[in-house]
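Hey team,

Filing this mostly as a record. A colleague (T.K.) asked me to run one chain through the structure pipeline before their review meeting, and I want the input and output archived in the tracker in case anyone asks later how it was produced. No errors, nothing strange. Just documentation.

Input sequence:
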Amino acid sequence: MSIKTILVSQPKPEGEKSPYFDLADKCGLQIDFRSFIHVEGVDVQEFRKQRVDFKDFTAVIFTSRTAVDHFFRMAKEVRFTVPDTMKYFCLSESTAYYLQKYVVYRKRKIFFGKRTILDLIDALKKNKDEKFLLPCSDILRQRIPDCLEEHNIQFTKAELYRTVASDLSDLADIKYDMLVFFSPSGIESLFKNFPDFKQNDTKIAAFGPTTAKAIKERNLRLDVHAPQPQFPSMTMAIENFVKNA
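Output structure:
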């Protein structure tokens, strides 16, 4: 079976440059984008049930831009003025620079890593006397709290947003040769929207081990899996599969 149409379960890339656009041109594919999940903020009432008080903390660990947005959103809603002395620890440089949306960057103590929580451990240890808040979603990657606990970093989680399934009802009569997933939540959204989904000849691609596991747990056939040593990106893995198909 030749592959002509692909649905990627993520928002369409911004701008004109993307490896997916290059792949479409190179292989003559129709590649559409549609986010299967979206983020909703926890309301004040739900937040207060967690018994977390922002004023008890002197530092915040940010795992993403979304975490930044919802921390400052909730601070505003509970009428908490974030002090200028607050320290910020970000998983990546891009997340750190995103803080400029809310604070005067050059006047704050901001630390950032390259990409993972391990990159931040040295900075966190040097500030181990701080009281750390970890704003997160309902599906926080377990390796983050595990890593903090392993290195004796004292922290408190605050669930400020959650990932929920998007309404995909308009796709009910649209068929694609391949579906591409990047998280277990995307798989859950597929079945929430289409409980009777049957894979049949549809090819399924997954990025990451947890996504692949979720696909297999649903008794679906995993046709394309990335990253692999020879295909480190999703687009490279898809291109190889399309050419062989």
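Quick notes for T.K.: Residues 65-77 form the longest helix (13 residues). The chain is about 30% helix and 20% strand.
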